[in-house]
Amino acid sequence: MSENNFLEVRDLKKYFQTSRGMLHAVDGISFSLKKGETLGIVGESGCGKSTAGRAILRLIEPTEGQIYFDGIDIRALNKEEMRKMRHNMQIIFQDPFSSLDPRKSVSQIIEEPLKINRIYATNRERLDRVKELMDLVGLAQRLVNTYPHELDGGRRQRIGIARSLALNPQFIVCDEPVSALDVSIQAQILNLMKELQAKLGLTYIFITHDLSVVNHFSDTIAVMYLGKIVEKGSTEDIFSHPLHPYTQALLSAIPIPDIHSRQERIAIKGEITSPIDPKPGCRFASRCPKANDYCGRAEPALVETGPGHSAACHLIESIQ
Amino acid sequence: MGGIAMHNEFAVEVKNLYVEFKTDYGVVKAVNGLDISIAPGKTLGLVGETGAGKTTTGLAMMNLIPSPPGRIVQGEIRICGQDILKLSEREMDKLRGQQISMIFQDPMTSLNPVMTVGTQIAEVIAYHEKVNKTEAMKKAKEILELVGIPAERAKEYPHQFSGGMKQRVIIAMALVCNPSILIADEPTTALDVTIQAQVLAMMKELKEKLHTALLMITHDLGIVADICDFVSVIYAGRIVEHGTLEDIFDNPAHPYTKGLFNSLPSITNRKTNLKPIRGLMPDPSNLPSGCPFHDRCDDACDICTSAMPQKAELSESHYVECHLFHSDKDKSVFGGTK
Fold first, then answer.
1. Is the peptide bond before B265 cis (omega within 30 degrees of 0)?
2. A25 to chain B, minimum CA–CA distance in Å?
3. Domain ranges for chain B
């Protein structure tokens, strides 16, 4: 692997056996990420973005593929080694309402990783660390003994962030961390996550369906559709020159809160098809406004179209 | 509109509405003196965050506030000129579906899972119109075609439909008796963006075709820009700012409205910093004195903590409830006090 890649994922696959056949949730995705950067993984429900996030952390075991974290092949680690490795790699979940144990107080939730990993010898030291973490994420210390149900969504998400930071990780998968929050609170949490990234040198994978958030937050973007990355590139490239018809349609579908810069919508018909035993061919072909017969027969490979920008589409030359 | 005389130009008019809920922890004041009016065929966006009273307002307009614990304390709700709070339950039943309909956020839970979608739509028709079963089903199929679902799918059950399709069925059901007013409570929040775009386009087309007044309840200013003619910004159960789409998007006046715009990540300029509104929405069972927004407002002054601001008319179409605009004439309109 190249020296300066902090995280490198190669041909990652996660299949689930279902009664109707093999579900290809993540079907061979590859990408790399430098230290301190943010990769946004964007897509709609069922595209496999959350499964990808969990598979990268081995919270669910990938079916195939390699994951190199700081040069270490983490799929080769045994359970104990993996547990240690997880100090460095954490996750923030989408729903601050269901990802916190309702029977635990704020301090009990935040200290759990510290306890499991026996980081501190005394309760005193551990509580000091909990308070330090609460300061870091902007939670008032008076809330230390409150329970999640007493707090609003924004504060709950701050607890989730404090918990993920407890072990001083270098890398965090953020799975839709703000999509359950109101816009004014969403902005508070996004700003906090940016501050933490600058302060602690964190590397993020930011999983979201919200393109305006990912635009604000990410350095590079991977767009997923039915288990595949259909386009990836720098955030500027993706937003100013989207190449894949799906990316173009997705960008044009965002309702923009501006009444003077209305753009034409690219209507895409129909809905996402089934990820169970997908047919050969481009997975977007049935909805694609530009598709021809060939698109349904052969699967397009992700090809580089410019520095750091690649797309998987048979028609890429004509689109460019 | 039946035999009811139109007393005014509005399809729906809500005046000085107060709704509260009695709970074990005190009285929750969900709606506190709210005014809304929509002309036939126009769309009003009701914008606000969780807990602002958006859904309660919608439910009150349907006279569907669960009681107890809820209660419409005072106010007037006129649907096509008729004060619905004076109607009997039976009369109200007739009105719902026929003159006013509501669609809810979550298409997954709004349909009956053990009835085919055709039967569910036909049920509405049979209740309101003197038709037999076959005719009702025929009409149900027509409306399904209108929302873009092939008529033969009428015999399928909700679980056989995707989220976007279910929401289309619900819209069909709400519109089948051609109501004068449709309340849409976050109709696309549970849908993916590409499906949301499809559903919004369809709603736009339908309301033009049917000349329905639409109340679009949403937290998404992008959707408002896309579909609405007028905008009311709701905070702690009051309309704090109201105007045309241009008034609100080009000249937002209330500090809360401005705060909402500043909290949004910009799609065109990714380097702009987000300026969140500090603090949280006040607890509706314990509203602060004075302006309910004062403790989150950067421009608040003494009077804001003590007196509730009155409406200040900025133009014929645009008003704001904020002390900053209650000039002694020498205070500049946008400069605040100092």
1. no
2. 18
3. 110-178
pLDDT digits (tens, 9 = 90+) for B64-118: 998 889 999 999 999 988 899 999 999 999 899 889 999 988 877 889 999 999 9
Contact with chain A for residue B108, Cβ under 8 A: no
List all residues 6 or more positions away from B51 whose beta carbon is below 8 Å from its beta carbon.
B281, B284
Closest CA to A183 of A151, A154, A221: A154
What pLDDT is stored for residue A256 in this prediction? 85
DSSP state of A276: B
User: Contact at 8 Å (CB) between A166 and A114?
Assistant: yes
Q: Is B275's CB within 8 Å of A265's CB?
A: no
Chain B partners within 8 Å of A257 (Cβ): 220-222, 224-225, 249, 261, 264
Q: Write down all domains in chain A, each with its CATH number in brackets.
A: 5-88+169-319 (3.40.50.300)
Helices A123-136 and A153-165 pack at an angle, to 10 degrees, of 130
Q: How many CB atoms lie within 10 A of CB A240?
A: 9
Chain B residues touching A187 at Cβ < 8 A: 262-265, 274-277
The owner of tokens 């694609």 is A288
Cβ burial, residue B157 (10 Å; 0-12/13-18/19+) = middle
pLDDT tens digits, one per residue of A93-148? 988 888 999 999 999 999 999 999 999 999 999 999 999 999 999 999 999 999 99
